[in-house]
Specification:
Elements (H helix, E strand, L loop, with lengths): L5 E5 L3 H12 L3 E6 L23 H18 L7 E10 L15 E4 L9 E10 L1 H12 L2 E4 L11 E4 L5 H5 L5 E11 L6 E4 L7 E5 L3 E5 L3 E2 L8 H14 L8 E11 L4 E7 L2 E7 L5 H15 L1
Parallel strand pairs: 1-2, 1-7, 2-6, 3-9, 7-15
Antiparallel strand pairs: 3-5, 4-5, 8-11, 8-12, 8-13, 9-10, 10-11, 14-15
Length: 307
């Protein structure tokens, strides 16, 4: 039986709190320190359909993603989590699309008819869609750990073993200059009755996705590498709505409910490792790009194992 440890998790987004949840479940005494409350993190902006967007390496991403898919399948049985399985299409604009991610999906079928202009084929599958407002509230409550709102500037400031899961802020804490913000803008509109999601990653006019939830539809998006602004651009919003309307004409004229921008923490590969610094364990878990939700439970399981 492992010894119970005092563990400080730095970061209050979906990765930080999923790690905290699993560490507490393993019997450790856990404190989360977050510079922003969960509802103001990048995680809160996510459209959050399970999809390993902009994350590497592929073998680890598939393993983490498959474990998270199983976890979300169980969570979908509880309506309070905000997780629901929904069918949808990943659109392909080339004759030989890269379907590496389907290795983690239990069932996926090819669709060749009734597709938008310029789309050669599509992959239909049923995946979890996560309403992040409800899910983050559930996750924080379910973790049952102590939370401190504040910014950590030096790991020496915090006690016990440390899990660094602070997204873009992680690099400064562990001396990693390989992180890059990738700006993502979304606009949420009232749901006119859509049930199926659409992902059009290779749209020549820009990354496009349409993700229906119970009361709204998340329309995106952008992938602006190196951009730091979190102010929504009206021009970008108009372009997103135009692209979304091309894919799902029912959305044209739907009233805007809210808008947001998040900065994805991109890295050449996800960093998930363990080092001993000044006599204590430091586990890094960051750099998930646009796949934080998708990889969260699998990565959290590895964090527990490393401690």
């Amino acid at each position: 039986m492992k010894t119970s440890l005092e563990v400080t998790v730095i970061g209050g987004g979906v990765i930080g709190y999923t790690c905290a949840h699993e560490l507490a479940r393993a019997g450790h005494e856990v404190t989360v320190i977050t510079s922003d409350p969960p509802e103001r993190t990048t995680s809160a902006v996510a459209a959050a359909v399970w999809f390993p967007y902009s994350a590497a390496p592929a073998d680890a991403v598939l393993r983490w993603g498959a474990e998270s898919l199983r976890a979300f399948g169980s969570l979908a049985e509880d309506p309070g989590t905000g997780v629901s399985p929904r069918s949808g299409l990943v659109l392909h604009r080339t004759a030989s699309p890269d379907l590496w991610w389907t290795g983690a999906v239990p069932s996926a079928e090819t669709v060749a008819e009734g597709l938008p202009a310029g789309v050669v084929s599509a992959t239909r599958c049923t995946l979890p869609v996560v309403d992040m407002d409800r899910y983050l509230a559930w996750l924080v409550a379910a973790a049952g750990v102590r939370t401190v709102v504040g910014e950590v500037r030096d790991l020496a400031e915090v006690p016990g073993a440390v899990v660094v899961a602070a997204g873009l802020r992680s690099g400064g804490l562990v001396g990693d200059d390989g992180l890059l913000p990738v700006r993502g803008q979304v606009v949420r509109v009232a749901n006119p009755g859509l049930t199926d999601w659409l992902i059009d990653e290779d749209n020549p006019a820009g990354l496009t996705y349409v993700v229906p939830r119970a009361a709204d539809v998340v329309c995106g998006g952008t992938a602006d590498r190196g951009e730091h602004s979190v102010e929504p651009s009206p021009e970008v919003e108009a372009a997103i709505l135009a692209r979304a309307g091309e894919l799902a004409p029912e959305l044209r004229g739907a009233p805007v409910v809210s808008r947001a921008v998040g900065l994805r923490p991109a890295r050449s590969t996800v960093r998930l490792d363990r080092v001993v610094r000044d006599g204590r364990v430091v586990v890094s878990c960051y750099g998930h790009g646009g796949a934080g939700v998708t990889l969260s439970w699998g990565c959290a399981a590895d964090v527990v194992a490393l401690l």
